[in-house]
Design a protein that fits this description.
By secondary structure, this protein is an alpha/beta fold. The protein is about 55% helix and about 10% strand. The protein binds one RNA strand of 77 nucleotides through α2, β8, α13, β12 and β13.
Amino acid sequence: MEANLAQIIRELYDVDTDVKLTRPDPEFGDYATNVALQIANKLGRNPRDVAEEIAAKLREFAHLSEVTVAGPGFINMKLTASVLLDNLEEVWGPTYGNNQDGHGKTVVVEYPSPNMAKPYSVGHLRPGNQGWAAKQLMEATGWKVITDNHLGDYGAPLGIWIAGFLKYSNDEALEKDGVYELGRVYIAMKKALKEEKEQDGHELADEVQDWLLKFEAGDGQAQLFSKRFNQISLDHIHAVMSRLNISTEYELGEAFFAPRGKEAVQRLLESGVAIQNEDNSIIVPLDDMGFDVPLLVQKSNGAALYATSDLATILYRESEWHPDKVIYAVGAEQQFYFAQLFAMAKKLGIGTELIHLWFGTIDQVNEDGSREKMSSRKGVILMEELLNQAEAKAHQVVEGRDVSEDDVKKIALGAVKFSDFTSDRRTNILFDWDNIFALTGFSGPYVQYAAVRLNKIVKEYGQGSARVEGYDYEAEKAIIAKLLDYPSVVTLAARDLEPHRIANYLYELARDMNRYYESTQIATGEVNDDEKAARLGILSKVSQVFDHGLNLLGIQVPSQM
RNA sequence: GCACCCGUAGCUCAGUGGAUUAGAGCAUCUGUCUUCGGAACAGAGGGUCGCAAGUUCGAAUCUUGCCGGGUGUACCA
């Protein structure tokens, strides 16, 4: 249609325009365009007249049932529902929604990369949700995707754990509370270290440092502690990721890349990108890239930093995987750091597109009503606690119905995940129990419920027919039009890594479905065979899109709810 | 100080490659009265889109300035 319009304009006025169709309010039409307004100025003509001329030409197209000009010069077009369905049938298939934009290209997606020192908290909800959605969107658009969980399993936390454990804890407590005990020890020790520093002491800090040195020297006891603590933490992370229904192909953490950091720094020095200060620290000056602060890649005591292993990570991925793109699902707080990191990579001649898939903070409301980022200081909510509560809520709602434990988990997870996708990833979200567990309105369970209802009907009465001759599909028009929109929604969501577009779309589709369902009998009552076959056919398509879209968000459709 | 993000209904948020009457959910009020599943549907009230100027035939959307908030700003992870 867009091409046709462009052609008409070329013939009428001899100008090339990029025509865009929009979806106006249904009372105006099914599609609309404001090209007349855009070109009228150029032509020095009245936009309304131009619109009328274009509309006259458009009326020659048989499949447009109505073409009108409105307002200052909008062209509104109406199509019959069966023409819309023909259009849909042309592009329909078992993988409807997917495309091959990324064919032949490889992308590395890094998520959720939790810090291993503390238990998995809601602070890691977004890296998992957004990272997973990014992975799904890239796959849906034809990319080869490699996923990597960049674990924070190296460095100071180990020293803090060991020293803290000996000071504040014991085997019994660790046995009993596992990662939660480790988290307590870590936080207590961090606090003690901070207090010590404020009083210019260094006894505890030395202890931590000693343990790190012992570990690096291969000391048996330190190795044993490391192995034990890491295992507890890793088991916990895997358990939570499994509950969240997310996973990664690789798990190459800090510990894996740390030894390669030295080489990376060497390369920086040799290429002249980095310089060594008199105090032995090594920095990458970035003033030529617009940064007033250089990136520190080696401390004055010779120790490595994040930037060091992150650079080693980039180099490793380049040589092993040759990606065209790397996506880091990490919070907005690290925007400045990633900008520096990417600038350094660029100076080193790395041409791969590096993307920081950032997202806003998770906030809490203070007593005075102001909002602030959730922090361990003010008390974070643990992920397992969140999931437990979500499941309890779901249980409560399905009480008395025959719903499996598996389905309850899907509903709980649907609510939690979908709430993250209701707003743009860049928006700081307010952590609110009512919101995150929402089961009605613009929520995951609302969409899941619509899908479940429809699936049951299809299961009971059949899949219907793709196209029933003689049926006008007018009752299904809004749904057909909505289905036609889906591929472009996926394309945009993937292009900008904006999964909330998918959530918005699914909600609207579910709402259209519920309205339709309310007003139209599908398979019972006074419905003839043609109507039944036609309607069930549409339902099957909607069902497929619900599955596809929710799957992009990492949400499953329960069999019962 | 500087950088990035944000400011839209009582609350939480969409809408920002300019465009026909700014939309949802929650909350409030009213109706459907439960038929293929009501976690639903229909409706009402509620907004000078932070403020001011500019660009434009047209600005929540683009530009500039200001006000307010959040996050970050090399030896932390």
